[in-house]
Design goal:
- There is one protein chain.
- With 152 residues, this protein is mainly α.
- It folds into 2 domains: 113 residues, Orthogonal Bundle (Non-ribosomal Peptide Synthetase Peptidyl Carrier Protein, Chain A); 32 residues, no CATH class.
- 61% of the residues lie in helices and 8% in strands.
- The strands form 2 sheets. It has a two-stranded antiparallel ribbon. The chain has a two-stranded antiparallel ribbon with strand order 3-4.
- It is flat and about 90 Å long.
- The termini are far apart.
């Protein structure tokens, strides 16, 4: 009985090592780490955009209309209200973030194409028979469809 328990324990330990080994392999892949760094930078950048919106853009909008964009609410019945100011702030934050991400992706795509050589156009493998207009092999001296002799 003790031997069976040892074998079962050893199998369970191997499965656990295998599971954690797979997890470690998954976490250490480059794209997972890149994604984690992106999320952290995105969160930090989000706070910068929020500060820009609340401290610069909202006061500028306030100069045009209501001085308190954040406090722009529409009262409803039973003490409920629609907070349009907070919604406008969130939309402005989103647009700024989306625009900056667009610029970053566009710059990255351009940087990826700088070092690449343009692929040469592949030589044609077929030609058209001048008599029957069929597509034939470029090296053919006779058309397989109409049996005409080809000069090219």
């Amino acid at each position: 009985m003790a031997e069976d328990e040892k074998k079962t324990t050893a199998k369970a330990a191997e499965k656990t090592k295998g599971f954690f080994g797979e997890f470690k392999k998954f976490v250490m892949r480059g794209n997972v780490i890149d994604m984690a760094v992106g999320v952290i930078i995105g969160a930090a950048f989000g706070s910068i955009v929020t500060a820009l919106t609340e401290n610069v853009i909202n006061p500028l909008i306030g100069c045009i209309g209501n001085p308190e964009v954040e406090g722009f609410v529409i009262p409803l019945i039973k003490g409920q209200e629609i907070n349009l100011g907070a919604f406008i702030t969130a939309v402005i934050n989103f647009l700024i973030m989306a625009f900056v991400l667009f610029l970053i992706v566009k710059a990255m795509n351009k940087a990826m194409t700088i070092g690449k050589k343009k692929e040469e156009e592949a030589a044609p493998k077929t030609k058209t028979c001048p008599f029957c207009k069929s597509e034939i092999n470029i090296d053919a001296t006779r058309c397989p469809h109409c049996t005409s002799e080809l000069k090219d």
